[in-house]
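User: Predict the full complex structure for these chains.
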Amino acid sequence: MSTLDAHAGHHEEGSYLSGPPGIFSRVWQWMTTVDHKKIGVMYLFAVLFMFFVGGLAALFVRYELLDPIRDQIVQTVDANGDLVTTTTTTGESLKELFGGLTSDLTGTQIYNRTFTLHGAVMVFMFIVPSIPASLGNFFLPIMVGAKDVAFPRLNLLSWYVYVFGCIFGILSILMGGVDTGWTFYTPYSTTTDADHWRVVLMVAAAFVLGFSSILTGLNFVVTVHKLRAPGMGWFDMPLFIWAVYATSIIQVLATPVIGITLLLLIFERLMNIGIFDPAMGGDPVLYQHFFWFYSHPVVYVMILPAMGIMSELLAIHARKHIFGYRAIAFSSLGIAGVSFLVWGHHIFTAMGELAAILFSGLTFLVAIPTAIKVFNWIATLYKGSIVLNTPMCYALMFLFTFSIGGLTGLPLATLATDLHLHDSYYVVAHFHYVMMGGTVIAFMGGIHHWWPKMFGKMYNEPGALIGMALVFIGFNVTFFTQFFLGTQGMPRRYANYVDEFQTLHQISTYGSWILGLGFLVHLAVFIHSFFAGEKAPANPWGGLTLEWECESPPIEHNFHHEPIVKHGPYDFETTVPPHWDPADYPIHPDAGKGRH
Amino acid sequence: MMLTTLASMAKPAPIDALIFGDRLPASETAAWTDGLFMMITWFSVFFFVLLMGLMLWFMFKYRRRPGVAPEPSPHHNTLLEIFWTVVPSSSMLVMFVLGFQGYAAKVVTADNALELRITGMKWSWIATYPNGGQSNETQPLSYNKETLDGVEVVTQGREYPIFYLPENTDVKLRMQSTDVIHSFWIPEFRTKRDVIPNRYTGFGIKTPKLTKYDSYIYRDKETGEETEMLGRDMWIFCAEYCGDEHSRMAATLRIVPQEIYEQKMAEWGVQLSPIETGEKIYNQICMSCHAIDGTKLVGPPWNSATLDGHEFGYGYDVTLEDGSTHPRDANYYRESILDPNAKIVAGYAPAMASYQGQLSDEQIDGLIAYIQSLSDRGPAPAEGEETEAGTDQAEEAAGSES
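Assistant: Here is the predicted structure of the two-chain assembly.
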C-alpha cells in the first residue's frame, strides 16, 4: 500500500471511472470519451449483451429440437369401422411459444430464422469483437505501458461503427428475421425472401461490422509497434499482446475480402449482376471461396486472443514462467500466416479433387502450432504453485474443452472421414468445442482475472466457482452428445429429424438449460460485485505485467509515471510482484541460478 | 412400438453402435473409413487422456501451499519441444495420406457402372434411371403402429420417395440442382457431395451384397398389409441448408435383389397417363408444399376444400391478396407453375420458385390433369379410372358451400 499512498500524495488523479456529477454529463462523458479503458468497458457491455441475445436464440433452437417438427399422419378406425386419417403438424414448439407474434410463419421457417439469428449474432456481433475489442482495448495499451492506443479517436469511431452494425442486424431481426444461415450461401441468399429488405440489412450489418474490426486491428498493430514502454523489446511483451497483435494482422488483411464479397452479394440481390447466379453464367461456389477466405482466418481472430488470455492466466495463477515463450509467440504468428491457406476445408464436398487434397494437407499444417501451444501450457503447470480460483479453473477447463475441439478436428481434416461428417452435427459439436469451449471459456476466465482491475471490485469467489462448474457440466452435456448425432447421420440445420435421434437431442437440450443457468449465476455474481463487491487491491493475483502496477481501477492516464520495464512478464521465480510485500512472496533459494 | 425385423438381429459391436448407430457401413469403402475414423479417435483419446492426466496430476501435486515457493524449472527445453513438434507432425502426415486414399476410393467410380441421375430441388430428390424411368413409390421415414384402447393407431411422418438400386453393383451418381445448392448424403455409405446448379457433380458407390439379415417391411398403402422383404433401406438426407423445408428433403435408398430391380425398371419405364404423370411429379416435387387433403402447408391445397373461408381446388375461384378473384382454370394453373408470383393466393407468402424450363409441357399438362382429378368440379374420369377425390371429400366441399 505504501507505493499507492506515495502516488496519491504526488498526483491528484482519480480513477478512470470517476466523472462529473449528474447523470447526463456522465453519459455524455462516456459517449464522447477517447479513453481506451472506457471504450473497452463499453465494448464489454455491448458484446456481453449480444452474447445474451445470441444465447437466448441458442436456447430457443435447442428447445425446438426437443421433438421433431413433423407432419403427423394418424390413422385410426372409428366406431363404424371406417378408416379415419388426420394430418396434424406436431413439434412446432417455438411457434407455440411465440404465439401470435409469428402467426404467418411455419414452424420450420421460425426455426430457420432462429438458428440464423443465433449464428449471425454470435459470430459477427459477439465472438469476433469479443476479446480483442473489450479486454484487448482495455489491457493492450496498459500492458505495453502506453497511456492510450495510437489513435484514440479512431478507437471511439470503431465502437460507434460496431453499434451501428448491431442496430442494422437487430433491425433486420425486428423486421421478421433472416433465414439464410449466418454463412449467406448463394444462390439461396440471393433468391430467398426476394421482395424484402431484411436479408440486405443483415448482410449490410456484417459489412459494417467488418469496418469496426479493421479499425480496431489497425489501431492495435500501430500501438504495439510504436508505443511500447522503454525497456520492452518484442520478446518482453506479454503473450496476450503477441496474440492480439497476430489477431489484428488477420483482421486488417482478411476483413476487406468479406467486405467486398458481402457488397457483391448485395449488388447481386438488388441489381442481378450475375456474379454468383448460375443462370447468368455466375458461379455459386465462388461465393463460398470468397466467404471462407475471410471466415477461416477469422476463426483464428476468435481463438488467438483466447490463447493469449490462456498464457496469462496459467502463468500468473501457477506462479510459473511460461514454458516455451518464443514457441508460443511464433506459433501465434504461424497460425495467423497459415490460416490464410486453409479456407478450402469448409468446401471439401463442393470442390475439385486436386484442390481438396491440397487443402487437406494445409489444414493439418495449422493443427501443429495449436498442438504445440497446448503442450506448452501443460508444461507451464509443472512445478508451479497452482491456485484453483475462477480464472484458473476456466483456464484448466479451456485445456479440457479446447483439446477435445482440436482433436475432433482431425477427422474433419482427413478427407475420407470428412465426406461423412461434413455438414453434420459432428461439425456443430466440433466448432462449438473450439469457439465456445475455447474462446468463450477463455473470455470468461479473462473477465474474472481482470475484473478487479477493470472495476476496482472483487467478485464473489464461491459464487463464480458454482457458475463455472455449471457451465462446465452444461457445456459438455450439450455438445458432447452432438458428436454422436453427427456420426450417426444427423445433418445440420434440421428442424425435423428421424425418431432414432430424439434421445440424444433431448439430452443435448437439457444440457443447454444447465449451461444457461451457469451463465445466469455468473450474471448474478457480476451484479453483486458491482454493488457489494469488496474493494480490490492493485495486484490481487501477484501479476508481473504492467497492468498490475496501476491502481485498481487505473487512473485516467493509466500510469503516474511512464513505466520502465525491468523484468520479464513471467519472472515469477525471481521477482516480487508490484504492490506486494516481500515477506508475503516466498522466493525459492535456487531461483535464478543458471537459468536463461 | 418399432417392428422387430430380421435386420435388427445383425447388430454392430457396442462401441460402433454408440458412434455410428445401428446402421452398419454399406460398402467396403464405408467400413474402411469407419476404421480410419476409429483409428484417429483412439489416437485422440490416448493423447487426451495423457494430457489431462498430466494436468490433473500437476493440479494436485503442485497446488499452492502458503509460504512455499515453487521450485525453479526450465523455461524451455529444445529437445522436448522438437519431440512434441515431430510426433504430431508425423502422425498427421499418416492421417493425411490415409485420408487421401479413402477419398480416392470414394470419389472414383468404376467403369461400366450403373448411372443414376439425381436431381435436387427445393425440397425433394428425383432419381432418373438409365431407361428414363422414375420411382413413384413413397414411404415415411418414421412409422409407428400401436394399439390404444383396442384400436389400432398408425402414426407416421411425411412420405418420401424410395429409390431402388440392385445389390452388389457399381453405381455412379450424376447429380445436378435446379435451384440452390443441396448436398446428397447417404450416411450408410459415409459419403456426400454437394448438388450444384449448372454443374454436374457425383460420386461412386458399390451397393452391398444382401445377406439374410437384410430386410425391409413392404407396406401395402391400400390394405396396410405388411410383408418382410429381402432388401436394405437407407436414409438419404440433404446436408446443405436449402431453405424452409430443408429438413424434409429426404428419401429412402432401397437395395434390392437384381430381379426386383429389373421388375421395377420395366414398370417405371412405361408410358404413363397424364394423371399418373401428374401424380408422379406431385410425389416428387410438389408434395412438400401442397397438400391434397385440404391441409394448409407452405402453399395452398390442390383438392377442393374450404380453408379460412376461402375455397380451393380446380373450378373454384381463387381470392388474391388484394381481394380480387380469378377462376382456377387450366391457364391459371399453368401460370402459377411457370410464374408463381403473378397471382398470390390470399393468406400465402410468395415462396415458390418458377418451374420454367424445368418441367416439360407434357409434365405441366400432367400436373393440371392431376389437379383436375382432385376437384369435385374436375372433368369426368376416363373409362375405368378412379378419381383421387373420393366421394367423401366431394360431399364435404359441397356441404361447406351451402
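Chain A is about 65% helix and 5% strand.
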